[in-house]
């Protein structure tokens, strides 16, 4: 992976949290192309590379085979099934197969390492990219303030499938992340874990700043930490002092164009959106 990438940190935390044998499916993306060169792989567990769009479908097929073998008495081991995908392969290209796997009820956990763009193919915008971000397909300019749309709330979309468990996490809160991974694989049904994974190339931050960038995203309430367990929403981190979202934005090169005087309205709109979504979350979690 690139120096400073937080995706491997996320993957190691998730896998280190699980005691049982695991089978991993990996959607095409940064993680996949950096950990395998056929016929070799850096993975030390059974690992399946699949296309951008069908990691959840592939793993649900493997899980179905496993359940069949258990019913036939040919297997008696407790195996966990985990899919990893970036935001491009999860929010966008793979959403259909993910939704299908959730609806069918396969006992598997899908982990999205969210670096907020198609980083593997050249830093193009995805539906996880924040409003105002400068990407190769939403470039800043005299007439452009970057991406115009707000990011998709995928964790809420997954929770609407009435799955046993869905959560958001951050690598700077390692215990919270690993606890959520354990809950995800222990649940009786499909689960989802979305983890912010700052990309130093796409976010244009220093190679040592990834974990701090994730921490600021949480402290500004841009990336709240919460879980939805059997329909019950719980807030896992309520900052003692909610920082202005500009404290997070100003550390990243992809947002520097917004700090010109003529772009103040964009920053105000960004803060308003963060505040509004935070208040909605507080109500859902009974914290309002």
Care to describe what's here?
The chain has 288 residues and is α/β, with parallel strands linked by helices. It has helices spanning 7-16, 30-35, 55-71, 87-92, 95-104, 154-159, 174-186, 200-203, 210-219, 246-249, 264-284; strands spanning 22-27, 36-37, 40-41, 47-50, 80-86, 109-114, 165-169, 191-196, 226-229, 232-235. The protein has a single domain, classed as Thiamin diphosphate (ThDP)-binding fold, Pyr/PP domains (Rossmann fold). The strands form 2 sheets. An 8-stranded mixed β-sheet has the order 4-1-5-6-8-7-9-10, with helices on both faces. A two-stranded antiparallel sheet has the order 2-3. Helix 1 crosses helix 7. The mean pLDDT is 97.
Present the secondary structure layout.
Blueprint: H1 7-16, E1 22-27, H2 30-35, E2 36-37, E3 40-41, E4 47-50, H3 55-71, E5 80-86, H4 87-92, H5 95-104, E6 109-114, H6 154-159, E7 165-169, H7 174-186, E8 191-196, H8 200-203, H9 210-219, E9 226-229, E10 232-235, H10 246-249, H11 264-284
Parallel strand pairs: 1-4, 1-5, 5-6, 6-8, 7-8
Antiparallel strand pairs: 2-3, 7-9, 9-10
| Poorly predicted parts | none
CATH topology group? Rossmann fold
The biggest beta sheet is recorded as: 8 strands, mixed
Helix proportion of residues, in percent?
25-40%
How far the N terminus sits from the C terminus, by CA atoms, comes to 41 Å
- Report the mean per-residue pLDDT as an integer: 97
What CATH architecture label applies? 3-Layer(aba) Sandwich
The outline comes out as: globular
CATH superfamily: Thiamin diphosphate (ThDP)-binding fold, Pyr/PP domains
Question: Which CATH class is shown?
Answer: Alpha Beta
Order of the strands making up the biggest sheet: 4-1-5-6-8-7-9-10
Q: Give me the secondary-structure category.
A: alpha/beta
């Amino acid at each position: 992976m690139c120096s400073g990438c937080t995706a491997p940190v996320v993957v190691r935390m998730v896998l280190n949290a699980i005691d049982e044998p695991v089978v991993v499916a990996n959607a095409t993306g940064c993680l996949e192309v950096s950990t395998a060169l056929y016929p070799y792989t850096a993975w030390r567990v059974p690992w399946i590379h699949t296309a951008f769009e069908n990691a959840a479908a592939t793993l649900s097929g493997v899980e179905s085979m496993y359940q069949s073998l258990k019913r036939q008495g040919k297997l008696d081991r407790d195996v966990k099934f985990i899919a990893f995908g970036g935001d491009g392969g999860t929010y966008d290209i793979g959403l259909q197969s993910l939704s299908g796997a959730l609806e069918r009820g396969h006992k598997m956990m899908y982990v999205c390492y969210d670096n907020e763009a198609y980083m593997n193919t050249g830093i193009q915008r995805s539906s996880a990219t924040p409003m105002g971000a400068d990407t190769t397909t939403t470039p800043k300019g005299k007439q452009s303030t970057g991406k115009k749309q707000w990011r998709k709330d995928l964790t809420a979309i997954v929770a609407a499938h009435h799955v046993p468990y869905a959560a958001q996490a951050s690598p700077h809160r390692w215990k919270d992340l690993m606890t959520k991974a354990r809950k995800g694989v222990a649940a009786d049904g499909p689960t989802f874990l979305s983890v912010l994974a700052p990309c130093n190339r796409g976010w244009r931050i220093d190679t040592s700043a990834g974990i701090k960038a994730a921490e600021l995203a949480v402290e500004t309430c841009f990336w709240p930490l919460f879980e939805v367990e059997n329909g019950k929403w719980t807030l896992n981190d309520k900052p003692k002092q909610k920082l202005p979202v500009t404290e997070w934005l100003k550390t990243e090169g992809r947002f520097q164009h917004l700090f010109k005087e003529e772009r103040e309205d964009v920053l105000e709109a960004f803060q308003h959106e963060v505040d509004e979504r935070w208040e909605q979350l507080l109500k859902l979690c009974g914290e309002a």
